[in-house]
Amino acid sequence: MASMKETLRGFGRRIAALPKEERPATGLLALAIFLLMVCYYVLKTVREPWILTTGGAEQKTYASAWQAGALVLVLPIFNYFVARLDGRRMIVGLTLIFVANIELFYLGAISDVPGLGFIYFVWVGIFSLSSIALFWSFANDAVTTERGERMFPFVTVGMTAGPVVGSKVGSWLFDAGLSYPNVLQVGAAILLVHLGVYLAVFRQPVIEASKPEKQEGSTLARALRGFQLVLARPYIRRIALLILLLNVANTTGEFILSKLVEERAAGTDDPGAYIGSFYGDFYFGVNLLGVLLQVFVASSLVRRFGIKSLLYTLPLIALVNYSLVAFGVAFSVFRVIKTAENASDYSLMNNAKAMLWLRTSREEKYAAKQTVDTLIYRLGDMLAAAAVYVGTTQLEWSLRAFGLFNVAVISVWLGVAWLLARSYAQQGDEEPTKF
């Protein structure tokens, strides 16, 4: 107990070490992303039962694939407005559009519109990726690199705490007997409160979002600008490759976990209950550990070792995990390390992904980041799905073979992380800020 108190005091001292003018903005940004994550997890609790009860597991599989296709259409529209609106107007406008979308789903739900669960599933995927990416685009644009390196480890506490609270709120709402449409209204209300916090963020003196620069070229060229930016600059290409490899490894790892859980569930009297109980405990452990890592570890790592410590931690944990899978490690050991892997992804790696964009231009922070965090992210899912399909249907891989596949992917990922750590330092005149 004494050590926990001392750790909490240490976290408090690190917050107190922030310059006074940065503390309100840091707290408000943390609250904004916290509410956004709570909203997403409340809306997510509607997603699964809605599509499964109206379309079945097949429809859910198709909807996951449709998300990537929908992003190809949505991103050019987003990039078109990036060239015309500053961050404040982008956030207000997009948030109000999302609230209006939720109200349309509410009206459709109470009217029993057929096929709406499928559309909602696709929409939730777009909402989560684009709104979170926009938050970090604005945060990167609104503060200097020096301030971002101090503030972001504390801001990300809100991002890791949000899923813990949001999943519980969603569960409570359904346990209380609320219908899908009414849960949607709760999500809309949380999103409006989130927007109110944003309005308070805009008034903070350390928040200075830049204005969009005039761009040459046709309307189509400006709409496709995000794709061009990703391809044009080596630093951005490395970020995109890191996100791609991370998601391939993570999605393949989730497949390995699911297969192991299925094998154990098959030997029980009620496989469905076993799977539900396992994942409930697993995700709770992941979210709880993620919060602890964010509160007690993230800021210390950045302060002492810079961004490279955040970039290396997750792939090193994953490399150990899947190397053990390749050697046939016991399920209990895999579960523990997989919990640490996912928790590190949700906390430490989220810090790294946010900080990597601090030393980029305003246009790259919005257009390129949105492309990387949505389309490239989903492309990683698609590549992992292709690997699973080929491995299971054509090559007849065992789980050990999938473990070796992930070891190969992660080895490349580590190399990209090393290049990015060097590139990040080269983006500015000096090394990442120590505090």
Task: Chart the SSEs and their pairings.
Blueprint: H1 2-16, H2 23-54, H3 56-82, H4 87-110, H5 116-142, H6 145-175, H7 180-202, H8 219-223, H9 225-232, H10 234-265, H11 271-305, H12 307-326, H13 331-355, H14 362-393, H15 399-427
Helix pairs in contact: 2-3, 2-5, 2-6, 2-7, 3-5, 3-14, 4-5, 4-7, 5-14, 6-11, 6-13, 9-10, 9-14, 10-11, 10-13, 10-14, 10-15, 11-12, 11-13, 12-13, 12-15
Walkthrough of the structure:
There is one protein chain. This protein is mostly helical and 435 residues long. It is built from 15 helices and no strands. Helix 2 (23-54) runs antiparallel to helix 3 (56-82) and helix 3 (56-82) packs parallel to helix 5. The two termini are 27 Å apart. Mean pLDDT is 84; it is low at 429-435.
Rg result: 21 Å
Q: Detail the poorly predicted runs.
A: 429-435
The mean pLDDT is: 84
| Proportion of strand residues | under 5%
Largest sheet: none
Give the terminus-to-terminus CA distance: 27 Å
Question: What is the oligomer described by this structure?
Answer: single chain
Categorize the overall geometry.
globular
> Strand pairing plus helix content: what structural class?
mainly alpha
- The number of helices is 15
Helix content: over 70%
Helix-strand sequence: HHHHHHHHHHHHHHH
Number of strands: 0
